[in-house]
Structure formats: structure tokens, C-alpha cells
Amino acid sequence: MSSARRCPARRALAGLFVWHLKNTGVQRIPCHPVPLFRAGGDRLITFQYFNFLKRMYVTQYNKDLSQRAKPKSDSVASPFSELQQLDQEKRVLHKIRPISPVQQPLSETPSQSESRERESAVEAEDLVTPVKAESKDDRQWKEMKLQLEDLPGILARLSKIKLTALVVSTASAGFAMAPVPFDLTCFLLASLGTGLASCAANSINQFFEVPFDSNMNRTKNRPLVRGQISPLLAVCFAASCGVPGIALLTLGVNPLTGALGAFNIFLYTCCYTPMKRMSIANTWVGAVVGAIPPVMGWTAATGSLDAGALLLGGILYSWQFPHFNALSWGLREDYSRGGYCMMSVTHPALCRRVALRHCLALIGLSTAAPILDITTWTFPIISLPINLYISYLGFRFYRDADRSSSRKLFFCSLWHLPMLLLVMFSCKKSFLEKEDKGELLSGSHGRAMEMRLP
Length: 454
Known about the structure:
Layout lengths: L1 H22 L1 H4 L9 E2 L3 E2 L2 H15 L19 H14 L15 H30 L11 H8 L2 H17 L6 H25 L1 H4 L9 H4 L4 H23 L1 H21 L6 H21 L4 H23 L2 H7 L4 H4 L1 H24 L6 H23 L2 H24 L4 H22 L2
Antiparallel strand pairs: 1-2
Helix pairs in contact: 7-8, 7-13, 8-11, 8-12, 8-13, 11-12, 12-13, 13-14, 14-17, 14-19, 17-18, 18-19
């Protein structure tokens, strides 16, 4: 009973408290009462809706907590301000200011001062105009004037005088190695004719390769590329060397040597030169061109193609591969810019293999010389160290494939050939020994014939 009596009392107190809130506390709130459970339109109150009402209250009645707009940042300088400043400075610099009159001395009259001003203006114009004229002339193309004192040097570079000297020296070696008595007149005529033929071939080669030589650092200073000599003069020089050279070899030496000289010019200018931009076979054709001069020297002395001539040609043929392949290895960039198809550019591994093979081939060719009865057996023994050394450098070039090994092989080839030919000449069999041997063979053959006769 007591608990039942307490419950109505508690409910009565709660009702009085709610009635008090309705009459006093709710009226003091400036906003309308918000239902706690349902909003207008029978929509349930959510947490987001309650937060929205809270923000609205804070924004309206508490100005300090409202969001404030950020102050506008300073304007960024435009990228064209520097250009505008430069334009202003240029305008200021180019602005012509009036010149204040200079006080004239009492001793000078107005006419004298005017004449002095005119003279100074003329002198200033004289100083300025040549500079402008020179700058304009430098930009324009000018034809180089040929001086007579410069002509021998230009023609020497046009004919590749160093290469021509090498050709003449190999032809002289072939003449000296021939097993016949030495004829000085024939030797001089053969050397002169071979040199003229080489000058003609080299000049024609440069005439055809002007647009390609201009792209290479190694050949961009040649006379035709720089315009030091006209193409017509270069062709005339080639003709003036080639025709007398072939005539001298044909009429002064023998027709066989003249035919070999003419064939070599044709092979170098019409086959080797265009093939340099078509196929790597140009290296083998160029090796044949370099092998013909010692054959010409042998035929000039003997008048016939013998085994000795072919052996000398074979030595020069094999020597050119390590020489040229090592040289072209360091000029690969130049050859590629010039448009030349070289082994070192397109087939670098083949370039190194071919150089090594022909280095070893020089040992075999040196051994074949006494077999063909051209030298004594001391020649392959004495020449073995230098042949082994160039073969070792060829192997280094094949293995390392760098500029250092290629340069060593190239410089070795420069002294290897003259030393090999010198050793070959010192070990040459004399003409008297061969003559005695020939008489002995003819005498034994006569005795055998006599013994056969009844």
C-alpha cells in the first residue's frame, strides 16, 4: 500500500515540473520550441537536422563565431612586367636628347667651327662604314682567288702526294726485286709514269667525292671542298697527269706495264670510288688497287707476269687490310656522316676478323718467297718477329675492339711494310746465282740428251 501511495505522488511532482517549464522557461527562449521527436510533415528528426539547426542558431545570434571572408591576396606580378620594363628602358635609351650648344672660343669664327664639325662627322662615318661593309661581305659567298705561289701546294694535296709517294715506293720495290740486271733509265721512267697515274687517279677521286668529303672532318679541308681550285682545273690537272703517265709507261717501258697502269686508274675511279657508298666490298677492290703498283714495277723490269710479281702483289694485298681497317675504326663517325659503307661502320666484327686473318697471311706469304725461288730461306726467319708482332696487335684489335688497339695496329703497319720490303730485298737471290743455276740445269739436260743419243 505504501508503494502504491508513493507512485501517484511522484507522478504529481513530475507533472507540476513540466507545467512550470511550459509557463516560465520555454517562453524566455527567443525561438519557437522544437519538437524533440517529430518535425513538420511527420518527418523524424535526424542527427544531421539537429546539427543544421545548431549552426543556424550560432550564425544568427553569435556574430563572433560566424565565418569571415579571407582577405584577398596581393595580385601576382604579370609575366610581361619585365618585358614592359625592358621596353621602357629601350625607349629611354633610344630617346634622342637635344644637345646643348657648346661655347665656342673667342678665337674661332662660326665658319671654322662648322668646318670642324663636318670633318669630325666625315671621320666618324669613315670609321663606321667599313665595319658594316665588312660584316655584310663576310655573310656573302666569295670566290677564293688562286695565287700562283699557292698552286703547287694545292695540286700536291689534290693528288694526295703522300699516298702517291707510297705507290711509287712499292712500284720501285717491285722493280728492285725482279731477277734481272738493274736498268736506271727504265726505273726512272717506270717510277715517273706510276706517279703520274697515281696523281690522276687521286684527283678524279676527289672530284667525284666533293659533296661527301664536305661532311667529314678528315676531308673537309681538301682543295675542291674549300673552293681553292675549280672543278674544271682539277679535271684538267688529272688529264694532264694521266695521259702522259700512261703514254710514258706504254712507250717508254712496255705495253704490259702501261695496260696495268690504265686498268688501275679505271679500277680506282670507276669501281672503288662509287662502291664506297654501295657495299663493303669496296675494301677488297681497294686492296687490289694497292696491290697492282709492285706488279707494275716487276713487269717494268722483266716484261712478264711471273710468280714473283704475284707474290709481291699478294703481300701488298694482305698488308692493306690491317692498315686500312685499323684506320677506318677510328673514323667510323666520319664515314657514317659522309655516307660511306665501310666494314668498320656496318660490320665491325668482320672488320676485326679480316684484319687478323691478313696479319697471319703475311707470315704464310713470307714463307712462300723462298719456295718460289725469289729469296733465300733467311727471309722468313728474319721477317718472322715483325710478322708475329703485327699479328699480335691484330689479335689485340680483334679482342679489345677499341681505339687504342686500332691506333697501335695502324702505326705498326706504317713501319712494317717498308721494313718487310727492305728485309726481302736484302735476302733476294742474285741474278748471277739464278743464271748459274740455269746454266747448270741446261748443261745437265744436254748431257742427258747426249747419253740418250746412240
